[in-house]
Every structure is written in structure tokens, then in C-alpha cells.
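Incident log, entry 3
Record: Thioredoxin domain-containing protein 12 (161 residues)
Problem: checksum mismatch between cached and fresh output.
Input:
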Amino acid sequence: MLSASSCSIFLLSCVSISLGSDLSNGWGEHIDWQKFDDAFKIAEEENKPVMLLIHKSWCGACKNLKPKFAESEEIATLSKNFVMVNVMDDDEPEDAKYKPDGGYIPRILFIDHGDVMKDLYNESGNPKYKYYYHSPDHIMSSMERALKQLEEGFSHVSDEL
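Fresh output:
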């Protein structure tokens, strides 16, 4: 039989493991979030695009968008068609391809076969910060456009000629 202190340590360990594995970072526990390092393999296996949300814990705009995103049933429904990833703080990937027009936050990118779909951005936003979103409606619009493009076979626009 375990002592009270052993039970407390066990319980705290379970809570720590549970909290440590929460990939939502507050952006909706009901969404099937994946680790960045696993996302591209899963996307290939499931033939889905990746939706990458880049944010910071200290960012006011991120804090403003987070509850709206988390509460959106429409985003949750659309998310089933994507491999959903959100990275925060030091987990942000350093590769320049994840900063197609700058390193501002929050930034949402759609990725197909490892390539950022540069033509999928917030069409209602500021053209200087194409991948910045402040509204769930604008996010849903881009999610729907991504799915439509992929259905039509146009996975991304290339800069190459």
C-alpha cells in the first residue's frame, strides 16, 4: 500500500504528464493537435495539408485571437481536414520558409508536401502581413480555400519558372 506522500507524488506526476502533453496551448483542446516534428509524416500518411499556427505566450494579438479560435465550432470542424500544429515561443521553426513575409505573430501557414502554400493568406488583412489573422472568419475562409485548392489539384503556387 502506498503512503499519502507517495500517492501525492504519483498524482502530481500524472498531472505533470497530462499538462505536458497538452498540445493545444489553449487553442482548443477538442482539436487534434500534433507535434511539429510529427506533422509532416502524419500529413503524408493521411494525405492532408498542415495548418501551422505560430504564436507567442506574451503576444497580445495572440492572446486576443486564442479564445475566439478555441471557441469556434467551425474551425474545429474544418480542422479535421488538416494536420493541426501550433508552436509557441522557442518551438517556432527557424527555417526562413516559415516566415514568407516576416516573423510577426500570430502567423498561420498552410503547408502541402512540405511547401508553404504562399497563395493562402488572409485576403481581408494587411498585405504587408499576409499570414496574420485576427478573426476566426478569416481563418475559416483560408481553410476552405486550402481544401478547395487541394481538391482541384493545385497544391501550391511556385516561385519557380
